[in-house]
């Protein structure tokens, strides 16, 4: 483990947390007994003494191991102090009787006794004595700023790589005039430390093109200690090229104003950290004397700096990392001097390129490591760097360490603790923002907010600050706005800073040892520490037990809850997420009085113990996807500090009583309105702080309108998305007036953004739904409101962008009332509506068109399953881009010819016709003979030039493409159920990239691939007459990446048995009864194939001669008995994943010795109807096998041979009753052969 620097300001912030607890009124009032009060005051004094020298200790610990050890001892004691105070505070808050309580609390027989407190004081005394011996000093804060070299405007002699486009963009911004009339434009270059901001700015600053453009130039290194006098003087000195003798700010600024007046200038402010708007305003006043076109180019790691600049013309440029190729050029330019002979350079270059990958695009890292290795000639030296953590290198030899430490050093103390906490995540892990904030809160890393803010809002500010300082980077995840990554080097830094107090269990595999100082523990599935009980004895003071499902492999350990509950008493964070075999939580969970975060998501838990409600400090309880959970504990009201209760996708039937007492609740997925007073909807009145999305279910249990009013939804102003749900039931006793009263009194606040109403039983909607004052509402959904015959007037919802209407079985007409009410006649209907979805309206007959003002911005219109809808669609949809009509058999409509239409989908709506063809349409999916015929006729005299995706299905007519040619722009063609279609083969279809033919083209017996030279994907299914692919010997299909053929009973060959597709990655063949062989020379002609699937090809006997393609990784074989009984597969085959299905009636033992390739890491066997014996001999040579899965082999009873491969870590046996029984009883003939496997799963339960 690298040197620890958990000290200094970071530890100071922790001590401040302790001071806050010591000063809390609850603790002060609770502790009135003289002796402990005096002891706690002494402890506070001791901590004050050490706190003032922490900055000096932080600086010295890198070079002085004694100081490092002293800091670690202090940190360890502060953790114990915090644990003690937390327990006392908890008991103070929960103690019913204050009288004589202290004698109870500090009884010597109790865990936190007087002797415990005295022991801590004794250790602090020792630490104070050591402080004197170490000669640690109190360094004033204003002088305690780390030195760093100031960059200059001079360029390095080394070439700048990979920044051509970046420089061109910056140059363009520098040279262009301001577009908004401002004289001065500011161009901040924002990026993480070491990415090359200064280098890029320097290159721009010294570019010869600027000499003729700017009258004046100045380069100023601003740095973190902002001194406006110094910075302004430096500008003047840069301009006049001599010292400035002025000293007062006013004189200096007047002088600079005078020098810039009437000039076009370029000023570079390098390494800017200042965020104060007033300081910026003062600094930039002289800039206003320049002329238009003047520029200020700045570099910063913090985007907030750019936001503070007092100019409108600010064009932020985010500088990204270099590619590995460009980073290698930087590295090589520093590592290989011209004078170095050839010698072993080739080997060193190979190692160097692996080193460069660790730099992860940071040129500073590449430069530093390259420069360090410049004088190293031995291969051993380069390998040592490759295999070492960069933070283990001596600071004097590696500039990347100070570069990243600077980013860290300038963080406020509270952010330092948050940053270091992230070392618990594995590298490259996508950190979920909201989740991390909850963890920070649980660990007391988020300061108590000022009035008007929540803890969560403060945590979000912390996170956003770390992002703006480039310590986190946005992920490319599909919901990337909430997912972030830590750069590998930043992760190394966080790990380096975490020292012995933070531990990832994957470090165990590297030989790193865990010790008692560890307070925060995380692990992945393949570093599961639960199997080693000694670890828990060592880390009994740990505050964090955090499994991270990094490899998407579920955790399973039934013993974990009991072990952890009994051994880790100081936990703040406890997660059993993905412990799928965990069926219950032990009662001992209630003893974890420090616990603030508990995650039981994706477990098999069916009930929760009542002792859970003893967790006074619990802030977050996550039960997501606990599908077996039917109820919450009855005393939930005791969890008065609970802020987040996640219960989506559970089977909870009703809420516990008195939920109103949980008045700190911020996020609650849903509330089930109960029939009893103690869990009725009235309980919501006590939850005023709900945020985000919220759903109220079973509203049929609300029997009076006044009950709904007491929920006080109007007061819950932080709810953004509201769902109101009635259960779907047939009940003829519904009181329609009460239903209306209930919904009327559930009126939400006016800032609501999204509303969904489902199952409402009333006959009409309340007036508030038609109120145009809901100006923030963008999404509205109405579902299963079966008794409403009319839709509410929604046209006046000014911000409504998306409207969903479905299953409104009583609605027959959508008329003018849908668009506007009489009293809102001046409002243009649906002024913002972009998407309209109308589904499953069985009685809807007419859509009365409104005047042309409606739907002016509608882009997407979906109408589905409206079988009685007649007439036509609205005829004025000027912005329509997507039109989908499905299962509207009576709708008589013509496809609109609007020029904006890009996507068209029509199915089972035979009266919709193409009277004109939308010329700019890009995607068409149509189904049914009349529609297909209509489209073919419409394009007879028109050649679509934009159509790139065409799917046509289920047309029994004798049709062909006009001119016997596909549309010239077509890239994707899907045809299905067009038996009589004559496929155009006379021409080459150059642009076609994807072709799918299913149950079509009966006349087609051979598909000439030469007609599709640029095909990427080819799928042929259910073509009974297809016999072969036609391939000329010289043809090579360089674009083809995916090939699938199936259910073609007469398919016999890949013509010539050779298919040259050098970029093919997926090859799938199934249900081709006559196919006897795969394409020959697959090894050479299909070199990039990664996935091969063969199913129900009974005549296939062997794989092609020459072996499998070299990049093959996954092979799936289903019911190909001859193939499995044939010759051993070529030994050089390197695929790693094999899945084999039966029934294979002739195989009773498997596998034969030498049959399978030794490269396998995962083997799965399914449905072998006659398999009786698993042969260890046939598996022993699989030295890389990690997973073996056997399923539905009902006759399998034996495992013969010595044992399964020693490399195996997971054995799963499902629906194999004979073998399962022997495994369960640990049969003497079976168990020794499998007992070494770390994880053994039998029918979903882990027995080991």
Give a quick precis of the structure.
This is NB-ARC domain-containing protein. This protein has 1248 residues and is of the alpha/beta class.
Structural class estimated from helices and strands:
alpha/beta
CATH topology of the domain at 164-318, by name, is Rossmann fold
Q: So what's the overall shape?
A: globular
Largest sheet: 25 strands, mixed
What's the CATH first level of the domain at 164-318? Alpha Beta
Number of strands: 51
- For the termini, the CA-CA separation is 31 Å
Low-pLDDT runs:
1-8, 96-103, 105-112, 141-149, 395-400
Question: How much is the average pLDDT?
Answer: 84
So, the CATH homologous superfamily of the domain at 164-318? P-loop containing nucleotide triphosphate hydrolases
Number of helices: 31
Our estimate of the beta-strand percent is 15-25%
| Name of the CATH architecture of the domain at 164-318 | 3-Layer(aba) Sandwich
Tell me the radius of gyration.
36 Å
